[in-house]
Fold each of these.
Amino acid sequence: MEKFIVDGMLGKAGRWLRLMGYDTLYFNTNRKAELLRIGRKEGRIILTRDRKLALSNPDVVILIESEETLNQLKEIICKLSLTLSEANLFNRCSICNSVLESKIKEEIKNFVPEYVYSTKDRFSQCPSCKKVYWDGDHCKGIKRTIEKLFSSP
């Protein structure tokens, strides 16, 4: 599976890539040499809207020309021939990119609202930032959006 780094111009797209299960770092700095070093060292594709950076480093950088997040995602999917893996959806922290860990209900009682605890049975937690995730109503909408991104030309 592809690994990415998005720069500050593609932060929202990076979050969506993580929701899709893609290992995606967010690099919001103007230190382009460091961005390139990390990309090459870790075998990551750098996604950016910075035309100069992309043209001068075509071996590791992909230029994303769209301005709107969903169009950026369509462009990324198309340019990189990405495929949708249902098994990988929602397996990474949308904030920090860590792989989520399944938690038994009792372990997260003090980390979620009482209503959520009483109505949900499956939870995941980020081992790094400790954010807790569950299959809420918003997940259906996110999943529909992702499926639409992969089905439309």
Amino acid sequence: MTKPVAKASSVTKTPAVTKTAPEGARGVVDVRVRQAVARCLADLDMRGDVGAPFDRASELFSTLVPALYNGDPDGARAAVLGSDLPTRELLDLVLRARLAVRRRKGRPNERTERERSADAALRALADREDPSQPEDLDRRREIATLHRRLLSLLTDGVLTARPCGTLVHANRPAREALGLRLRELKDTPFLDLFGGKTEGQKIWKAIITEGSLRSREVDLRAVNGRTFPVRMAAARVDGADPRVLVVIRDLTEIRHIRSRLLETEKLGAMAKIAGSVAHEIRNPLNSLFLNADILEDELRDSGAINTSTAEILGVMREEIERLNEIIKNYLSLSKLANANFERLDLNEIVSEFAEEGEEIAARRNVTIDLRLCRGEAAVRADRNMIRRVLVNLVQNAVDSAPMGGRVVIGSRRLVRKIKVWVRDNGKGVADEAIPQLFQPFFSTKERGTGLGLYLSREIVIVHDGQVALRSVKPRGAEATVLLPRLRADDE
């Protein structure tokens, strides 16, 4: 083991300063290169803990060090690719050669070229196969491809992070939930994902110290600031390149469904009770309304009616109609489970409803304008329920429109949906009130029941559709209903 070192060391004693200027400069460079090779070999011989055979290491240094010293990237790359040493040992030797050359002084441009050559040598390591395990590189590529495909198929979000707390990778579901782009992902602090830094620090500390995190519900924060609930589990993966593996499942939809089930059960029980009571209340209400009309006629015939009496009788009728409207909504809620679905043309239903809508609009001198699409707008629906939705939406639009205003009812055929909208030219709806408008018992009207839009939403959901309401600039509001479209060949 010491002979090559001695030989290399004896070479360094060769004088080379007595030549002419150009040849002398070349000789000095050769001597420095030989000194660098000898220094690498001596260091390798003294350590004695490198598995590479000494003669093969000497052969590598004799070609690699001059290429690095002279700033020859192609030569450095060829030296690495031409060696038959194992990759792990070859990496150690390349780093030793790089360190030996970096110690030498030189002009800035020479040092830059040496750095480029060293980088080329290191990049060549990634392009070569390990001669000690010829199939190792292909096998690792297959495993990496399989892992990428598995991560792309998962519906749960998967993230990997370094032990220092920065993200390395995230699959598509995780990136979409967090709003992260692939190029923005790397080096993002793990703690930035949490709405509260304190909670994130506790979770990260538990992962690092205990090695894993049992499944638990936490709140994460997306890039746009939206906070959403997830179920998170994590584990620390130790090894040569340690990582932290984190799995998240978005619970937003699950919590929404859970809330809907609780709300449906609660209101379903209430509607069942109210439906049975409504029949008992309806008959007395009709009697009260009829007797109020008879009383007004008798007072007018006798000449005993005056302005004050007429106003009182008018208030009585209005209150009776309001109670009757509440009963209708409760009865409709109790009948949602017994919908009678049939093939219908929405345009036909809207046209039939136009006469009833004009009666509603005439009270405020509001004009109804129909803008229906051509042809059939076929859906599968319950006729009475769809009419109930139209009554509620048009009534709201008429109430919102100014005296002498206009309400537009339109339809449109989309690829898979039929769209029906009702638009008014009133003052619109406040943005903060829109999320609550479809909640039961919430109303922006002074004498509203808060059940009209809620009932409309429940009916549309039973029909596998969607309903929404928005403000329209510069004035007005628009309610939109989307129902699944039936094709000509559908049953």
Amino acid sequence: MVNHCANPQCCKPLHYLREGRVYVFDVTRPAAGNSERSARRMEHFWLCGVCSETYFLEQVEDRTVRISPRIQRPVSTAVLPYKAPQSIAS
């Protein structure tokens, strides 16, 4: 069960699912006691609201999960002037 943020620098405890983002991945882990076998299972991960704005989780080729930064799109600072709608004369 998920009980904290998946970001190792944050680790905010999970109390409610109203903020943040939940990820579900099919993860492969080495089976206990056997180095040749591996166990696959669905695992849930959660990023808190603050971390989910900056990071996302992704699964890599070896079926492990890593945290990656989101690409920030530049925000335009130009503000267009307001143009009132034209009235239609009959």
Amino acid sequence: MKVEFEGTEEQRIVVQGFIAEDVETGVKTNLGRGGSDYTGAILAAILNADCLEIWTDVDGFMTADPRKDPNATVIPEMTYEEAQRMCDEGAKVIYPPTIAPVAGKHIPVWVKNTFNPSAVGTVIK
């Protein structure tokens, strides 16, 4: 869905990314974990988006697992390589394949918390 904000020239494309259709049977299904992250990254790359926003349930990538380390803090900025390495090592902030489509086009990824939208989040670029 294309969303235009009244009084501005800004445009946003808003889509859901977790519902799919089997090409052969036409049966609708939900994608597994990370399906919406990956779908968003693919669409961002195809559309040459200015950025990709991933809204999740954490404030961004953190220095440690906050459930295990109360001193963990948000990492405000990181490279695609750093984010990929953290995902490959088990960080469950975003689905690991999400990085490649946007990294190839140098599209920044903002990781923000749906339940704490004022948190600074993490930008991957």
